Amino acid sequence: MTTSFPAATIEGYPRIGANRELKRALESYWAGRIDAETFRTTARALRIDTYNRLRDLGLTEDYAIPADVAYYDQVLETALTVGVVPGGTDLDEEFALARGTDTRVPLEMTKWFDTNYHYLVPELAAGQDVTPAPERIVRIVEEARDAGHTVRPFLVGPVTLLALSKPAEWSLLNAVVESYAVVFRALKEAGVEWVQVAEPALVADLSTPDSELAGYLREAWTALLAREDRPNVYLTTPYGSAREALDVLGSLAPEALHVDLAPWTLDADPGYPARVAAAIPSEVHLVAGLIDGRNVWAANLRERAEVLASLSRDSVSVSTSTSLQHVPHTVNAERSLPVEVAPWLSFADEKIGEVQALVAGPEKAVEAFAQSDRAVRTRSESTTIHNEAVAQRVATLPEGEVKRSPEFAERQKAQHAELGLPKLATTTIGSFPQTTEIRKARADHKAGELSDEQYREALKTEIKNVIELQEEIGLDVLVHGEAERNDMVQYFAELLEGFVVTENGWVQSYGSRCTRPPIVVGDVSRPAAMTVEWSSYAQSLSDKPVKGMLTGPVTILAWSFKRDDVPLSVSADQIALALADEVRDLEEAGIKVIQIDEPALRELLPLRADDRPAYLDWAVRAFRLVALEAQPATQIHTHLCYSEFGQIIDAVAGLDADVTSIEAARSKMELLEDIDETFHAEIGPGVYDIHSPRVPSKEEMVELITAALDNVPAERLWVNPDCGLKTRGYKEVEPSLRNLVAARNEVVGAQ
Ligand code: GLN
Ligand code: ZN
């Protein structure tokens, strides 16, 4: 084959569209407002526009543009193409797999490596049928060609596909490899010269041990690369260093190999570039993933050029470390960023420019390198993001473990005396349904049609309604309902110093869902109280305790773009101290119960087992800093959800919260066995699955509470839903909460 690999490329690009065109098309189709034909035409137009845009940005070489196309998810796309999941090219079948129907449950969804993107988990069975549908990928190539583009089709690799499936059914490996061979042949017949195949499973510790994974890698790829009737293979290893697998990759010798050399990856594995240089033979064309695909900072081009040079190869291509799907489209779409901050940032489009600058080198790309130098300098010298007072405060903190005193048992006595709660106390997780009126009030306020005062009044009315409803239902510990919060992280980011928020920085989370992560730009501090007004107003309306409601430091950090100039633990400590001040102010305002939510505690867990203990140490410490100075009689709650916590249950107990509410209804309280041994504090395993509109009956909640009582004594058990109620409507929430209180009363009566 003759076509050489492009000198400058990227691993993938946001699919959702600069104006979220795909999101709108998907949601219109699902709602029945457009038909399948219109949906397909709209999505096709977006793909072609994207290729045009990438060409205009300089990706002009053949095969420089990756066609990492998917309507819903990239793993589902590959699963359908190679046929481990049946569905062929049927659009409705694809969406049924992704979203479920009245009669079918959807595929499970889980986080894609350590990003905030979620993929659909294929469900496999030994001996199942594997029938490829190569037309899915061939038509992508052909439609691009018709529009004048020679794109590079994309597949998730066979090892990664199986490793991420449920279960990882390795007995299917041969059949799956055969299926990839069929897809490769179809691509070859369609005239394709390069195919991109991603094998990020090699960088993570998954359920299959490394040594086994390396064996499957060798087996699958020896067979695939031995085929004559295939395009050149561009094998990629984004999301970290392919530590042990590197030698195998070298000996397999695909035509081109991508390695992730992002600063974040090299921080964890500094020797990686040297090992890559040694392990990968010269006949393999090396593609250096130098530009960070999942953070938003402008690259330090001179430092990056040095890493490139250290690979000591005659010809190396330059790419991003991962797909750019994890960052927003362009900094140019932001009009309200502080002028000082804008030049420090680089979103997807700007990163393409950085890739090209590295390919051209400092002699030719003089302006780009000079601009990078300026950004590096102004950022390191900036007095707005470096705050002496914050640095001092963090520096004077004790090192290592911090612990609230007195011990839980003693605090518990003080709290019970103070609060006088019944056994099996009932509460909710914080948010109440976000009504259309509240959404409208927020939009009108933002648009300037509602004054600050009017908006405040609207929020207070809502808080009053929520308190009255909870009193009437008979809950024991009330919440104010979080009507003032657009989002549990963005709300705090907007009020804290050291963050910037974007207007258009949307990033796909899953399917049509996007989030707009704030950016931690510098040292974090709290100019003024953030939640006290709402919590104390709510408390003034009731004699029952109302919970103060904070998002914890780990979750704020996990759902933001992080600084790359200090360790994560430093930002975590700073956020924690700001929240500790809020705890103090809440106490002073008479709030006796304070919840610090940490649903993302599990999410930041490093991909490699070796790196996990250090993470858990600083994450737990940051949480404890928030509560460290709280009065013994102040009851500190925390809340966790969205993941299985079995693996980190010790750390959850180590948070040393007085009460922990945790998602459990869907798994039918499976986690209780873990909890029994590790937990000595109070706990509220959710008895009401809020992820579905179904109203749980009193009887089923009685059953769940009774099951919980087998493991946790009544003095330590709480009764609550699984998670916040903001995505639900009052018509389900009201009867569900009534049933919840009735279930508690029945269990207590029977005791
Ligand atoms: N307090 C938050 C709420 O109820 C917690 C949200 C969450 O767990 N994700 O909305
Ligand atoms: Zn939750």
TrEMBL record:
It is an enzyme of class 2 (transferase). GO terms for biological process: methionine biosynthetic process; methylation. Binds 2 Zn(2+) ions per subunit. L-methionine binds at residues 429-431, 482, 597. Pathway: Amino-acid biosynthesis; L-methionine biosynthesis via de novo pathway; L-methionine from L-homocysteine (MetE route): step 1/1. L-homocysteine binds at residues 429-431, 597. GO terms for molecular function: 5-methyltetrahydropteroyltriglutamate-homocysteine S-methyltransferase activity; zinc ion binding. InterPro entries: Cbl-indep_Met_Synth_N, Cobalamin-indep_Met_synthase, Met_Synth_C/arc, UROD/MetE-like_sf. Catalyzes the transfer of a methyl group from 5-methyltetrahydrofolate to homocysteine resulting in methionine formation. Residues 9-313 form the Cobalamin-independent methionine synthase MetE N-terminal domain. PANTHER family: 5-METHYLTETRAHYDROPTEROYLTRIGLUTAMATE--HOMOCYSTEINE METHYLTRANSFERASE. Belongs to the vitamin-B12 independent methionine synthase family. Its EC number is 2.1.1.14. 5-methyltetrahydropteroyltri-L-glutamate binds at residues 23, 116, 513-514, 559. Residues 424-743 form the Cobalamin-independent methionine synthase MetE C-terminal/archaeal domain. This is 5-methyltetrahydropteroyltriglutamate--homocysteine S-methyltransferase. It holds the Pfam family Meth_synt_1. The active site is at 691 (proton donor). Zn(2+) binds at residues 639, 641, 663, 723. It comes from the Bacteria.
